[in-house]
Amino acid sequence: MDRCHYAPGPMDSLRQSPSPCSSRPSSPRTPPMERFGPVGIEAVLDQLKIKAMKTGFEFNIMVVGQSGLGKSTMVNTLFKSKVWKSPMPSLEMPTPQTLELHSVSHVIEEKGLKLKLTVTDTPGFGDQINNDKCWDPVLGYINQQYEQYLQEELLITRQRHIPDTRVHCCVYFVPPTGHCLRPLDIEFLQRLCRTVNVVPVIARADSLTIEEREAFRSRIQQNLKTHCIDVYPQKCFDEDINDSILNSKIREQIPFAVVGADQEHLVNGRCVLGRKTKWGIIEVENIAHCEFLLLRDLLIR
Q: Helix %, strand %, coil % for the chain, to 5?
């Protein structure tokens, strides 16, 4: 199934519309009809809003990366709630020998709007000595959700509301090595970008200086271009000049350098989300400290 059907973002009602990548038959532009007065078609927007408030939205996100990169913390930071509770590491806890996929669902309500959020984690990814084909369970799960949704749509008697379990976006956490993408990252992203919308991020960006971060981003962008890895937003979403300008700016900033934190600290008389160090507090929502706001705007807003 074409991955361009599913743009990441719970508020994007075009997620289930025909793909912008598909070819459209050329037809002459229909001239506007001469009217004698207002008809009231703007009421359709109110109807759509009322329907959206009743049914809500579904957003399914997958996070992929090695252990210790702050995936659970980042998800909690994105939605400002304890969406995912990762167990505290201990010596008694064995390292998973195989890749396992764990999903958790929550309903988040804000100003009367409901969002059913499903987060899928991939503990064990890239943690083994031999990581050959460690991407197979991830790709198999994504394709299984597509197939399951398609089979529901093909039924003669369909449900009034088909549960949407398709993965709308995959956030891939790149370890902050400061060098370039690893062979494992390249192999996995090449396969993943053909199946789902991928947003790579530099995890734990506070471990790099600003100069190291920019140099690392440039090398990653070069790796993505060299190996034909097409991340979100793809160029097929550039439907007009405004979309093209906006998406080009986003593509220039990917991968976002992010820092996650689920604890508040008092800074200059205000509470901020951040990580406290002996040098100061890294504010998650301060664009001068990290690019978490850019990631949140892309995925949610």
A: 35, 20, 50
